[in-house]
Amino acid sequence: MTTRLGSFQVVSGTPWRGVRYFCTTRLGGHSVSPFDTLNFGAHVGDDAAAVQACREALTAQIGAMPVWLDQVHGTVVHDADASASALGNTGQDGATASTPVADAAVTSCAGHALAVLTADCLPVVVADDAGQAVAVAHAGWRGLAAGVLDNTVAALQARLPAQAELRAWIGPAIGQSAFEVGPDVYAAFCDTQPENTVYFVRRPGSERAGGKWLADLAGLARHRLAVLGVRYIEQSNWCTYRHPELFYSYRFNHPTGRMATLAWLDPATDLP
Question: What three-state secondary structure class fits 111?
Answer without folding.
Answer: coil
